[in-house]
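TICKET: design request
STATUS: open
ATTACHED STRUCTURE:
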């Protein structure tokens, strides 16, 4: 079955980026001149996703406005002869079919799946966290879909992280010689980590997973966790795969230092600003 739908979790408050996120959704923070959420949507669209379900809360209206067509701005740009910019903003509203629903239920990254469950019933779908970017030559969502099409099993994105940082992530233990997940350990000690493969917010799920998630007890912090449901699924005999990023890198933007690193990585890939930016960086480093 062709995967046409994606559920994007964008109901978080972005507290680690306050005060910038006090009145602006963290997903709307810019990576150079595009908001984080637009880069995610473009990755999904490149993979053939047609319907994008954004699970929001009361203060996320700027997200909806961004993917709407701004008639006033369009008329102003056309009037001033800025045709290229007009086409750019027009294209944003035509990227996909956008559906917005409010998150209901307990806190936790599993709740958006349940909130959108009726809209994806009967078909596999992509589930994305709204502050995770994957900068890759080929859309990582497309890579996940290829893996799902080949093996017919649900799959989550993973990336190798430095051993000294494994205590910050959910770390995946694979069955020997395979990419099948045996276990996921949340923020293990460096000594006890089963690997250095961290899971992140890109996965393909289906109805079977939704049913497991509905029966999953609240976990750490009294929240509903996707990882807990994945482990329950595996304990019941299900196969859940891991997929490494090919030709690219996962970039989290949820805290100040990683947000700044993501901006630099995208900026240095821009032919229109790379040279001047490199001159600035080199001069700045010499003065430090």
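STATUS: resolved
RESOLUTION: sequence designed for all positions
ATTACHED SEQUENCE:
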């Amino acid at each position: 079955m062709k995967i046409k739908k994606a559920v994007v979790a964008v109901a978080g408050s972005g507290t680690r980026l306050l005060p910038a996120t006090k009145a602006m959704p963290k997903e709307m923070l810019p990576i150079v001149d595009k908001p984080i959420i637009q880069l995610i949507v473009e990755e999904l669209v490149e993979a053939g996703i047609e319907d994008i379900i954004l699970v929001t809360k009361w203060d996320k209206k700027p997200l909806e406005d961004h993917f709407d067509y701004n008639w006033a701005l369009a008329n102003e740009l056309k009037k001033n002869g800025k045709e290229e910019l007009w086409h750019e903003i027009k294209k944003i509203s035509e990227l996909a079919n956008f559906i917005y629903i409010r998150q209901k239920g307990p806190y936790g990254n599993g709740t958006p799946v349940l909130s959108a469950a009726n809209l994806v019933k009967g078909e596999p779908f992509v589930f994305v966290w709204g502050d995770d970017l994957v900068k890759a030559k080929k859309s990582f969502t497309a890579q996940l879909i290829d893996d799902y099409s080949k093996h017919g099993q649900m799959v989550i994105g993973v990336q190798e992280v430095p051993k000294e940082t494994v205590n910050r992530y959910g770390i995946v233990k694979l069955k020997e010689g395979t990419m099948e997940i045996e276990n996921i350990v949340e923020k293990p000690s460096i000594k006890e980590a089963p690997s250095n493969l961290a899971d992140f917010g890109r996965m393909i799920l289906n109805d079977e997973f939704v049913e497991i998630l509905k029966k999953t007890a609240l976990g750490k912090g009294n929240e509903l966790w996707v990882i807990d449901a994945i482990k329950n699924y595996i304990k019941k005999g299900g196969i859940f795969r891991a997929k490494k990023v090919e030709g690219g890198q996962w970039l989290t933007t949820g805290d100040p230092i990683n947000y700044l690193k993501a901006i630099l990585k995208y900026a240095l890939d821009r032919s229109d600003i790379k040279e001047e930016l490199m001159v600035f960086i080199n001069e700045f480093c010499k003065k430090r």
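CLOSING REMARK: The chain has ten helices and 13 strands. The chain has one domain: 5-269+276-287.
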